[in-house]
Amino acid sequence: MNLHLPVVVHFKEGEIRKGYTRNFAFFRDHFDLTEVDIHTSEEKGTLQIPLEEIKAVFYVKDFEGKPHYNPDPEAKRFGFGDRVEVIFHDNETLIGYTPNYKEDTNGFILYPADENCNNEIVAVVRSATRSVIPERKHSFFRP
Question: What predicted TM-score, i.e. pTM, was given to this entire model?
Answer without folding.
Answer: 0.90
